[in-house]
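Case study 2.
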Amino acid sequence: MDHNYRIFNAAIAGAYFLIPALLLPLLNNAQRTIWINLLLAIAFVFSCGVGHFLAAFYHHVTYWHLITAIVSWTAVIALFRSQHQLRYLGKTFQLLETTWDKSMTGNLLLEKKENDLKLLKINAVGQKMFQEQFNLGECLGEKFPIFCQPVYPQEKPLMDLYFQAFETGKSQQIEIHYEEQLVGHFINIFVPLSQQLLYVTFLDISPLNYDALTGLYNRRFLNSETRQWQACIYIDLDRFKRINDQRGHELGDKILIAVAEIFRDSTRRNDGIAIREGGDEFLLLFPIIDVYSIAVSILQEIQSLEIEGAKISASMGIATNDLPECEQDQSIDRLRQIAETAAREAKSDRRSELPNNRIRLWNRQLANQYARQMLIESYLRQPGRENERWLVYQPIVSLATGEIVGAEALIRWSSPELGMISPAEFIPVAEAIGLTYPITDWVVCQGLEQLTQWHSIKPNFWLSFNLSAAELEDKNFIEQIYQRIIEANIAPHLVGLEITERIIYQNLELYRQSLDWLKKMSVRLKVDDFGTGQAGLIQLLQFPFDEIKVDRSFVPENEADTEKLAICKAIATIAQEMKFNLVAEGIETLKQQEILSNLGYAYGQGYYFAKPMMADSLTKQLEENDQCFNLS
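Prediction:
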């Protein structure tokens, strides 16, 4: 019995010594309240161990029992006084456990195991993110090789970043996008808890990458997209802002939702993705090079839409990764930049709604054209370049008498660096950067000064100037032009302002205020290039213009050109009823002059009469040629 007594006491003493040894490491990370209580508990257990050790050898030390009693009661008092804090800590641990289990983020506790990480704990959301395939005890890198592959933008495997956190002891936060094994967009936060334990949380931010209105990807997603795409279509809706402003955002939203569905269907069929850049601008990315036919199909679907009576079109730019511009940089940003530039070129082309006008495929020709436009823009901004410009004047002739009754002022520009630059080339650039105002003002001032001199020869001679849509919208600029006419002491009806039909009929209501005001001021109003717009003759009933300039493409070559002849005859009939004067552009032969004269066209303009000429040449014509052209 005594022998057993000694063995039992020795065993109890051994346990009492081991328990403090196992508890001591906890002191490193314990909070103050826990630390004090834990230290006292360790001291109590250790003192009990000493007592049992002495008892095993039949040593009964009274003083040691006193020490054990003091330590014991000190521990009891300390535990009693810290009950509130201990209950609080208990609730905290319970809350942390609940937070772990019920968290909206995926939480993992991993342990370092050689060159991998073993799963110790995972919550329900984490299991869902890992598609219920990650089990306790399994290793992360072995189970999911994607963690051993480089991630954007760090260009390192995520596993390397995890082990780097062990070395530095610092937590990190990165944004990652997975398309394989793990699907979605995540913010990944990882915190080293010790040299062996790593806490990892995944926050799924995929919903933040979608546009709330259309459901397409948004610009945020584009900024983090890492896949290699071969082609990009940049789409900018035409006339959308006008619809939005005039008919409200509710209709605008319906249009955006409808076109987004077209983009979604097209990208699904062709393994691409659709992104709403913002406003009415969209980006489509495809894994194939040949996407022109896709763009044509999309454009046709957009143009076939009609929502509450509103119809729209779109301008598109296409860029592909086989372009020389992409040899060194095949990133999405580069593709997008080129495609957007191409779309801008398409948007500036207002000739028609056909795909060849509304879609621009970026190529070497367009690249050279764009580079030239950039140079033109640079030169337009440089002071002193106005000295390189001058005016020429193309006579307008009475088809009945051959008399020169007026002229059209046309600007010319010859740059030492670029040579002759056509107005068709530099005026659109000037419009895009808001520099048509000073150019047009210069043209008007120069032309009015010259017109004053011609009035000394022919008092009723009139001169026409071309206006852009932006200038017609600007009431202040219109008033400025009128003020120039008054300052030049010229009767307003001897000054004509020509507005291209395809521009004005895009939104006649927007321009009506300026047109009404000019009409009241007796300024001569003309519709230029009539027949090239989309509205048709019926639109003319909305506003009484003074003259219609019929585009040269409708002028018949001879009587056998029956289709054009019928068009010109129909225009003449309506003009007669509405009391418009008709001007025919592009007359190049006597036969054309005779046909149009017989149809009732009042005036003609074209190379048959004269090419655009310098002011001195026209002055000589007016003085020496009896102011007439021979019509026989």
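The two ends are 150 Å apart (CA to CA).
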